[in-house]
From TrEMBL:
Domain of life: Bacteria
Keywords of this entry: Phosphoprotein
PANTHER family according to UniProt: RESPONSE REGULATORY DOMAIN-CONTAINING PROTEIN, STRESS RESPONSE REGULATOR PROTEIN 1
Protein name: Response regulator
PTM annotation (4-aspartylphosphate): residues: 65
Gene3D superfamilies: 3.40.50.2300
InterPro entries from the UniProt entry: Bact_response_regulator (IPR050595), CheY-like_superfamily (IPR011006), Sig_transdc_resp-reg_receiver (IPR001789)
GO BP term, example: phosphorelay signal transduction system
Keyword Ion transport (UniProt): no
Length: 134
């Protein structure tokens, strides 16, 4: 039996993910973890930096902090939706509330996760939903 070497995913084969988090240490830790889980991660410290990125049309997933220095994650997703972006979005927050949950869901977030979020929980929320076979 011969073993073939396993190649790491190429940037073209990795799903594109935007990470918008103002805490430098947390942003870097999440960026590395998500990269190691197979995502092509573009990380930004603010909503303005993310919105200025020309690669928005190639990004399929958004992971955003709720509290950002120049905006909030819900407003960021609304701006992206206004540009026609239809990707999957997950909101991170250290300040969860039923009101925020409703607002985030109404804006199009698939999940609202409380910080600190366990890595396995975030990864589970980033997986595309499975449609049962009929």
């Amino acid at each position: 039996m011969s073993l073939l070497p396993v190649s790491p995913p190429t940037p073209q084969s990795r799903p594109g993910l935007w990470l918008v988090e103002d805490d430098d240490a947390l942003r870097r830790a999440l960026q590395l973890m998500l990269f190691n889980r197979g995502f092509d991660v573009r990380a930004f410290p603010s909503a303005a930096h993310a919105l200025a990125d020309a690669a928005a049309d190639r990004i399929g997933v958004l992971v955003a902090d709720y509290r950002l220095p120049d905006s909030d994650g819900v407003a960021l997703l609304r701006a992206l939706r206004g540009r026609g972006w239809a990707g999957h979005a997950v909101l991170l927050t250290g300040f969860p509330s039923p009101t925020l949950e409703r607002e985030a869901r109404a804006a199009g977030f698939a999940a609202v996760l409380e910080k600190p979020v366990p890595h396995h929980r975030l990864i589970a929320e980033l997986q595309p939903p499975v449609t049962p076979a009929r």
